[in-house]
Design goal:
Layout (H helix, E strand, L loop, with lengths): L3 E2 L9 H10 L18 H18 L5 E6 L2 H13 L5 E6 L2 H10 L4 E7 L23 E3 L2 E2 L4 E2 L10 E4 L16 E5 L10 E6 L16 H6 L9 H16 L2 H22 L3 E2 L11 E6 L5 H10 L2 E2 L10 E4 L6 H18 L1
Parallel strand pairs: 1-13, 3-4, 3-5, 5-8, 8-9
Antiparallel strand pairs: 2-10, 6-7, 9-10, 11-12, 12-14
């Protein structure tokens, strides 16, 4: 029996995507082989990768001024690859520190350049975000980095930060969830394992005028210029991830594109937040204007009930609701593939749990 999987990642995939992949698993494209068995240099797979890129450009509105790279190493790898590709030793990189993943990106960047944290919401325990115009990016900064959606704390920017420097976004947990202004960014990168496919693939969308400047010590596999020139195939790419990303993008297009995803995700988030706000038993600590559509943390009135809540939820087919180990409580991740009836099932369970234990 399929459960409602609220994992923060790797996350659930659309049932239609899994069913299609299942039907093609042993014989992909009448090749007599699985897509996992064909050469990444074969005409068939090169065409598959090209179609995936074309679909990504169509869905996100990515112009030819940007290169689309399909790499490995996840967001953590890009925490290092970004300063290696966009800065020189002694440069200043500006950061907005808005949560745990911002902190990790900052720590990695400090190995390669001077870091200026121009806004920091740690004093609020990362329950709010910096307002536009409330910070200043140093003149000459190599770039400004921000995390549009903080997976652990459940915050999401409602705007793209403005800067004279290129803006870099780690969109791992929000990409494809709503329309995005690609042209407002110099670089967008995202691990695939939340809204795009399985783990092992990271997508990088980089403006072409930012290529051609890697440091000499940049590993070739993370040299965006080399990868762009080789269509992301200087080594064997994560072929199954590329294939599943293509199927997921087909599903997004069939579901109304990013506008359809936005409507779907807004409805799910409003349902869950609305119930939490109306309940004296549950609470969400995030400033309402910055609440994430993708990751909804919530607290029970009595933390001693946390383990029982998780256990009973699993028995009801609602899995992976425990909050991140660093913050505790609960967290429901409502990525694109989570259907509305999954969120309704969670709300119904929460109502019953409150009646029994409230």
């Amino acid at each position: 029996m399929r459960v409602h999987n609220f994992s923060a990642g790797p996350a659930m995939l659309p049932t239609d995507v899994l069913t299609r992949a299942q039907s093609e698993l042993l014989d992909w494209g009448s090749s007599g082989m699985s897509v996992m068995e064909v050469s990444h240099r074969s005409k068939a797979f090169v065409a598959c990768a090209s179609q995936t890129e074309a679909s990504l450009r169509e869905v996100m509105g990515i112009s030819d001024e940007y290169a689309c790279l399909f790499l490995q190493g996840g967001a953590l790898g890009m925490f290092a690859a970004t300063p290696l590709n966009l800065s020189a030793a002694g440069d200043t990189i500006a950061f907005l520190n808005t949560g745990d993943w911002s902190k990790k990106a900052i720590a990695e960047a400090k190995k390669y350049a001077d870091v200026a944290v121009v806004a920091d919401t740690a004093a609020s325990n990362f329950t709010t975000l910096p307002a536009p115009g409330s910070y200043e990016v140093p003149a000459g900064a190599a770039y400004l980095h921000y995390t549009p959606n903080e997976t652990i704390r459940g915050l999401e920017f409602d705007h793209v930060p403005a800067a004279d420097a290129p803006v870099v976004a780690d969109m791992s947990s929000s990409i494809l969830s709503r329309p995005v202004d690609v042209d407002a960014h110099g670089v967008i990168y995202a691990g695939a394992q939340k809204n795009m496919g399985p783990s092992g693939l990271v997508v990088v969308v980089v403006r072409r005028d930012l290529l051609g400047r890697p440091r000499t010590e940049t590993p070739t596999v993370w040299d965006w210029t080399v990868q762009a020139e080789a269509d992301s195939m200087i080594n064997t790419p994560p072929t199954f991830g590329l294939y599943l990303l293509g199927l997921t993008l087909d599903w997004v297009k069939a579901s109304g594109g990013l506008e359809g995803m936005a409507a779907r995700n807004r409805e799910k988030a409003e349902l869950l937040y609305g119930f939490i706000d109306a309940s004296p038993f549950y609470s969400n600590p995030v400033t309402p204007a910055y609440r994430s559509w993708m990751n909804v943390p919530f607290l029970l009135a009595d933390p001693e009930l946390d383990k029982q809540f998780v256990s009973e939820a699993e028995e009801a087919g609602l899995t992976n609701l425990a909050g991140h180990r660093s913050v505790g409580g609960m967290r429901a991740s409502l990525y694109n593939a989570m259907p509305l009836d999954g969120v309704q099932a969670l709300v119904d369970f929460m109502k019953g749990f409150e009646r029994t234990h409230g």
